[in-house]
Structures are given as structure tokens and as C-alpha cells.
Design brief:
With 657 residues, the protein is mainly alpha-helical. Helices cover 47% and strands 4% of the residues. The two termini are 24 Å apart.
Length: 657
């Protein structure tokens, strides 16, 4: 049997069953050995989480502001930043994006703070790139805010944030709990910083006058207009600025004190805030603007937490935006068991017991709007008590379900508690968000401060699908009306082409695969037409090499849905979706597409059992912040190969009878 490639007339012959079976067996064993060799002693798996260079650049700025730069190997950051600069002179949001201005300005700033002079060849190339793209005046608000901290931009061009918003009670219109967890934990400390408007002297002191296309003497420090109704927010900003200049800000002192208290209450014993770098950096900036001493234990713990996110080699040093041990561990467990590792294998047992220890039994910010749920979820990171999430919790439950642990009663009770928490987090629209309940006031994304468009955490198809997959895979249940609402939400979210949006992975391949996997497990025949449309879309996206890929640009340009260079992780997602669909719709053309994808994975596996991809396939904020999970290219291919092999065995077993 042959299949015609979507972009050529090349015919791809299928190999014999015995050849394929041998290659699968060898590939799976090699991948299993690779992953098993990388388990940490405590039982977890964890690999690098890569982002653009702004996280590291902002860490340089923080240490310069606190004067803690000499106690860290920041000199190695210069080598890291130089290695990330591209031929065009700029730095990228994601691999191959052609360069991005805000990212490039922050990298340039960091290099100057590290002592690199403006006449350095790399700096000249960077300056040319930045000026060609409009200079500092065209950067995002958060870049301008960081520059304002060291006098390289004026606070007049940064939106005001009145601290009295801290005092607003929880209500249907606005409070800090209408912000997404990441926006809330990043913004509360900035209420203090934006009020104080500090300008720090660094060593070395720098200027960035050369990065203003219009010339420093012609800069207009103002927030750009949209020329629509949202410009009313610019008028409000002027009112806030007038109140600040005349010391007329109401409840200013009480608001700042409330923000400070909120920050201190949410610091983990390990020093972290919210498990991600932006709140950690911003909280330390807030404490600095309040006059905290560098030796204060709270400050020292916070600085140590940032150190713990760093990756240092002999010649390089960079800071990760987050760490993902819970997420990585759960997915590795699922991939190993699905590919044939026994459920009671020592590595699986150790990982399962580690996950049980990481279940969060404290109330967090989620409880402000969810007044009925009880704790029992998991977070993404080592420590993040206040911000567990639905996606991690569902994946952990599925990982524990396939593990056979010494204390099965404890495992069962932990899963029950997690299920109850997830059920309590279902939103009014029928689906699930990542961290919060009914966090969907989209007008917040129209504020001048919100140029990353990431102020809320609404329902998404991918998280909702994960919950439904958990219910089906683990034979769990929630009230039938609630399940029907969730399924209706997913059907409503299917796009005209047949695909689903991926909020947390790039992009429609991720979303479509996840939803198909969910629908195939829960009342699949009712949704057969939706599954078929999704599967057909996936097959139409298959590349000539048999793999799948999708560029991050698909978030900006709908014509790029499902298009991009093939990657191991995205190929695995597509295969997993098609395998799930094949359980419902048995078609030869689907089997051929799956086998071509499997061959792509087999052909691209490296000698040590691993896969490699340069592309960023994880999503932080669509259009603005992307991630490369270095483990994605390992456990998702193994999961796909394992599921495919299991299906082949089932087919052979059926044929015998």
C-alpha cells in the first residue's frame, strides 16, 4: 500500500511487518534506556526548560541593582548571550523567528551591564538590528520598565499602577484575583515598584541613547495610542500620573503595605515566588524599592531561588524561566509504562512515590474564587504551594494510575482527592483553565500595561481535553451533566478546518491531538464526526518526510496552522492523536499516515536513544513567549512508539482468532 505526500508526487513504500517490528523494538529499548539513565536519585526526571534570553538579561539587571553580581558567575552570561545572537544581529523569541526587538534590546542592555562596549562587533550588529526595527521606543512595556530602573528610559512612558487596587475586595468586576495567576504574582510586586519609580546606579553605569532611532533628544515618553475606544485607558493613566505627581493617590500607603504583606506571605521556604522567574524577579525588585537589606533572609532566599533556576557550564550561564520536574516525571512514567516497562519497575515505583510526596494539601490563590474545592492538586515545579494547576494534576493522576506502588491505598486516596479538586475547578463555560476558576475578563488584556495579552487564564481546549482524557483513561467519573458540559465545550471549540487551538503547546497539532485522545476515550461514537474531522486535518498537515511540525508563528498567522519543520515532539503528538482516532475510525489511509510518522521517529532517533529538535514547541504566552522543553523530544516519541507497538500486538492477537 502507498500514500501520496501532500506536497509532492513522491510515493513512500511501506516496509515489511518484520522489519518494522525489529526497528520498533530496538528504538523503544534504546529510548527507555536513555530515559532510565537520566532519573534523579530522589525519583524524578527533570531537564532544561529553555526560553528566549530576556529571562537571563533581567537576572543580570537584578543582580546589578542589588549589587550581588560579583558573587555569581555572571561573566559567563556574556558567552551565553553572544552564542544566542543570530547573523542578522538580533536575538529571537523562538528558534528561527528572524529576531525580535524587545528581546534584542534587553540582550544588548545586559551585555553593556556586563562591561561589553558599544564598539564591540556584536554590539554594532545588534544596534543596527534594533535601529532597523524602530529602536527602544518600539519595545514592549516590560522592556521599557526594566530600562527605566536604570535611567535608560523615563518612567513617564510606563503605565501607572495605583497600589490601592490591592485593597479592592473580591467582586464580580475587578480585584487582583481576576488576573491570571502568573499576571497576579508578577503584578502585585510591581504595584510597589511602579509607585516608587526607582532609578538605580549600576556598576558599570550605562546609557542606551544609541538605541533610539529618533535620537535621544526627540524621544516622546508616552504610551502608544490604539486610536479606538481603548484609548480611554490612556486618559485614566494620565489621571493616575497627575495624582502621583501631586501626592494625591488615595490609600497609597495602605495599598503598598498590603502588597508587601501579600508578597511575604507567598514566598516559599525555598525562596521561590509562584514557581516562575518573573514574579521572583519582580518581588525582589519590590523589596529593593522598599529598602530591604541585601542580607535580609527573605532577600537571600529569593536570590538563592533564582540561582536554583540557573544552568551553568564551564563557559556559559543562563537562567531558566521555570523548572518542570513534576510535569516531566509524570510524562516519563506514562511513556515508559506505555512502551512496556513494568508498572512495578523500581524506577516507576520511585517516581510514583516522589509524586505522591509532591501533592499539595494547602489552600492557594485558587481558593479565593473556588470556595468549595479542597486541596489535592499538583504544581509544575518542585515547590509552588499557592499555584497548583489542572493540567499537571490530570497528567500526574494518569501517571499514578499506571504505576503499581507499595501503598496502593494511599495512591487511590491521593487520586480521589485530586479528582475532587479538578471537578471543583470546572468553569462556567464548561471547560477548564490552567490555574483558576472563571478567570476570563478579557478587557484586562486591553490595558496599556497588558501588551503581552496574558492577563487572564480562560478555559482552553487542551486543558479541558486533558481532564476528559484523565477521566477516560483512569475510569474516573464526575457528575454526568458536568461531563456533558465539558464535551459540549470541546465540540464548540473545534475550528472550521477540524482542528483545535493549543494554548500550552504549539499549536493546533498539540490541541487537536489532545482533544482527539480525549473524545476517543469518552463516548467516542457520539463524537465520531468530530474525531474524523480532526484526524483528517492532522493527515493533511503531514510533511513529505512523514513527520509533523508547526511554527510558533501560527499563533499570529492562521494560514500557518499545522505548518512547519518536522519535529520529534510534534510528530509524536500527531501520531498519538491519530492512533486514538484509529480506535474509532478504522481507515487504511489513517494507518498509512501513522506508519509514515512512526518511520520519521525511527529515522531521526540518535544513537544514544534520544531525539533532538531546535524548535520551540511549548507555549508560555501565545505570540509573546515560547518554551523549549528539552524532555518533550524524548518522552513524547517514546509514548507514541509504545502506543503504536501495543496496537500492533492487539491487531495480531485479534487476527489469531
Amino acid at each position: 500500500m502507498q500514500i501520496q505526500d501532500r506536497e509532492s508526487n513522491h510515493q513512500t513504500p511501506l516496509q515489511s511487518e518484520s522489519q518494522l517490528a525489529l526497528r520498533l523494538s530496538q528504538s523503544i529499548a534504546s529510548s527507555q534506556n536513555y530515559l532510565l539513565s537520566r532519573q534523579y536519585g530522589d525519583g524524578f526526571w527533570w531537564s532544561k526548560l529553555e526560553s528566549n534570553v530576556t529571562i537571563t538579561a533581567e537576572a543580570v539587571l537584578l543582580h546589578k541593582i542589588w549589587g550581588t553580581d560579583t558573587s555569581r558567575p555572571l561573566n559567563k552570561i556574556e558567552a551565553y548571550l553572544r552564542s544566542q545572537q543570530r547573523e542578522h544581529g538580533g536575538w529571537e523569541l523562538f528558534y528561527g523567528d528572524g529576531g525580535e526587538i524587545s528581546t534584542s534590546v534587553e540582550a544588548y542592555m545586559a551585555l553593556k551591564l556586563l562591561g561589553v562596549t558599544a564598539d564591540d562587533a556584536a554590539m554594532i550588529r545588534a544596534r543596527d538590528f534594533i535601529l532597523q526595527h524602530g529602536g527602544i521606543s518600539k519595545t514592549r512595556i516590560f522592556t521599557k520598565f526594566h530600562l527605566a530602573l536604570i535611567g535608560c528610559y523615563s518612567w513617564r512612558g510606563v503605565p501607572s499602577l495605583p497600589p490601592w487596587v490591592m485593597l479592592l475586595p473580591d467582586n464580580p468586576w475587578f480585584s487582583i484575583y481576576e488576573l491570571s495567576s502568573w499576571a497576579r504574582s508578577s503584578t502585585v510586586p510591581l504595584l510597589i515598584v511602579f509607585d516608587k519609580k526607582p532609578v538605580y546606579v549600576t556598576n558599570p553605569g550605562i546609557t542606551l541613547d544609541e538605541l533610539y532611532t529618533e535620537g535621544i533628544e526627540n524621544v516622546k515618553y508616552e504610551i502608544p495610542k490604539n486610536y479606538d475606544w481603548t484609548d480611554v485607558f490612556l486618559g485614566l493613566d494620565q489621571v493616575f500620573k497627575f495624582a502621583e505627581s501631586w501626592n494625591l493617590v488615595p490609600l497609597r500607603k495602605a495599598g503598598i503595605e498590603a502588597a508587601e504583606k501579600w508578597i511575604l506571605e507567598r514566598q516559599e521556604a525555598t525562596g521561590d515566588w509562584a514557581g516562575i522567574i518573573p514574579p521572583m524577579l519582580n518581588s525582589l525588585l519590590a523589596l529593593r524599592s522598599l529598602g530591604y537589606d541585601v542580607n535580609d533572609p527573605i532577600v537571600q532566599r529569593g536570590l538563592t531561588a533564582i540561582d536554583n533556576f540557573a544552568i551553568e557550564t564551564d563557559s556559559s550561564y543562563c537562567v531558566q524561566p521555570c523548572v518542570s520536574p513534576v510535569w516531566d516525571t509524570a510524562w516519563v512514567m506514562r511513556s515508559l509504562v506505555a512502551s512496556g516497562v513494568p508498572s512495578d519497575h523500581p524506577a516507576i515505583v520511585k517516581a510514583g512515590e516522589w509524586l505522591l510526596q509532591k501533592q499539595i494539601l494547602d489552600y492557594g490563590d485558587w481558593a479565593v474564587k473556588n470556595r468549595h474545592g479542597k486541596p489535592g492538586a499538583w504544581a509544575f515545579e518542585f515547590e509552588n504551594r499557592f499555584y497548583p494547576d489542572v493540567d499537571d494534576t490530570a497528567v500526574v493522576v494518569m501517571a499514578l494510575d499506571v504505576a503499581k506502588l507499595p501503598n496502593e491505598n494511599l495512591k487511590t486516596a491521593a487520586i480521589e482527592r485530586a479528582l475532587d479538586w479538578v471537578a471543583s475547578m470546572q468553569c462556567e463555560a464548561g471547560g477548564w483553565a490552567a490555574f483558576d476558576l472563571n478567570n476570563n475578563q478579557d478587557w484586562l488584556n486591553l490595558l496599556p500595561y497588558a501588551d503581552l495579552k496574558a492577563m487572564i487564564d480562560p478555559n482552553t481546549a487542551d486543558v479541558t481535553a486533558r481532564v476528559i482524557e484523565m477521566l477516560g483513561a483512569c475510569h474516573l467519573s464526575i457528575p454526568h451533566p458536568n461531563l456533558e458540559r465539558a464535551l459540549e465545550y470541546l465540540i464548540k471549540e473545534q475550528e472550521s478546518e477540524g482542528c483545535w487551538f493549543g494554548r500550552w503547546g504549539v499549536n493546533y497539532i498539540y490541541g487537536t491531538s489532545g482533544v482527539i485522545a480525549a473524545l476517543a476515550l469518552v463516548n467516542p461514537h457520539k463524537h465520531q464526526a468530530n474525531i474524523q474531522r480532526g484526524a483528517t486535518w492532522l493527515i493533511q498537515c503531514q510533511n513529505p518526510d512523514g513527520g509533523w511540525g508547526e511554527t510558533c508563528r501560527s499563533y499570529n498567522d492562521a494560514s500557518l496552522k499545522g505548518k512547519g519543520n518536522s519535529t520529534a515532539s510534534q510528530t509524536a503528538w500527531a501520531i498519538l492523536g491519530l492512533i486514538a482516532a484509529d480506535e474509532v475510525i478504522t481507515e487504511d489511509w489513517m494507518k498509512v499516515a501513522i506508519e509514515r510518522g512512526i518511520n520519521y521517529l525511527l529515522d531521526t532517533q540518535q544513537e544514544d536513544g534520544s531525539w533532538y529538535e531546535s524548535e520551540f514547541t511549548g507555549t508560555g504566552f501565545p505570540c509573546h513567549f515560547y518554551l523549549k522543553y528539552h524532555m518533550y523530544q524524548q518522552y513524547f516519541p517514546l509514548l507514541a512508539l509504545g502506543r503504536y507497538t501495543a496496537d500492533l500486538r492487539e491487531i495480531k492477537s485479534t487476527e489469531k482468532f
